[in-house]
Amino acid sequence: MSDFRTTTGEPLPIGSRQRRLDRKRWLKRAAWILAAMLIIGFIIPVSVKIPATGYVTTDDYAEVRPSEAGAVADILAVSGQRVRRGDLLVRLNDGVQQAAHAEAVNAVSQAQARLTQREAELAQENRQRGHRLTQAELRHRHAGVMLKMTEDLHTKGLASGKVLEEARTALALASSDLESLRDEDVTLADKMLDVLRRDLDVKTNAALRAEAQLHDRHIYAPIDGETVRYDFVPGELVTPQSVLYELFGGSNLILKLRVPERYATEVTLDSPYKAVLSIYTGIGRQRFRGKVSALRSVIQSDNQQTYRMAYCTFDDDGLAVPPGTSAEALVTVATVPFWFWMFGIR
Description:
The chain has helices at about 15-45, 95-155, 160-180, 185-215, 340, and strands at about 45-60, 60-65, 70-75, 80-85, 90, 220, 225-230, 235-240, 245-250, 255-260, 270-275, 285-295, 300, 305-315, 325-335. Helix 2 (about 95-155) packs antiparallel against helix 3 (about 160-180) and helix 2 runs antiparallel to helix 4. The two termini are about 65 Å apart. It has two domains: about 45-95 and about 225-340, Efflux pump adaptor protein, beta barrel domain (Elongation Factor Tu (Ef-tu), domain 3, Beta Barrel), CATH 2.40.30; about 95-215. By secondary structure, it is α+β, with helices and mostly antiparallel strands.
């Protein structure tokens, strides 16, 4: 094997053995780096977050919807107005219900008048019957006394047989009259009163139903609070699916989030969230944090969106966030190693 010589100062070419050693050295380094990356990837935790949207509300909150479909006749409350429970907010067209209620109330008045009149007549008839019965008893007693006296006189020969027979006949007639009065069917009048009372009950129930139907055309505030009115106008047809108002009545703020149905089972109690509000925009905008405190156990739908409602704690950090402010949030549902997160494994 001859020597290689150079006169220009270039380094000697790397031999095949050296190249194999260098290759092994680089492969070993790459293996160590890859192993380190794999180990670090299993050690580093990554939070799995899901998106949710919602709004800030209060702990005493209500949505106001009509109980039945109808056209809006009067709007009696505006956004920002403080109302008390039972205040009238909206009146739907109720002309038919007003007429039906008035007719039902009039029918009750007539049925009550008939019952009262019949009770008064029956009381008078009972008084008259009592008088007749007393008179019949007196006549019967008198006829008995007269018969006794006539029998004594007849025994002494001081009264004729004809007079005695007339006395006996008078007693028999008095007994018959008294028995007739005592045998009169007084239950017939009571049965008539029962019929009138049942008729009054039927009319009263009909009036209550008419009143309830009229009440359903009037929409009242279910709680004390401040109103946020939705967009509806007089004459518009609204249905039980229409939200007319939101009422915010509590002192503590909460955040209601709609969790998409595909993530519904992943959110649990105490899951932390981070949210931004629509009223705070721009770079470095305020972020709010809290936890899920309650979950509805049903899937709800709104048009094409299906979701599960989550109720979360909310601290406004002294910023006086108004109820109804919309929010976008990321809810942390799990913590997994980096590689699990990388490949979507939970």
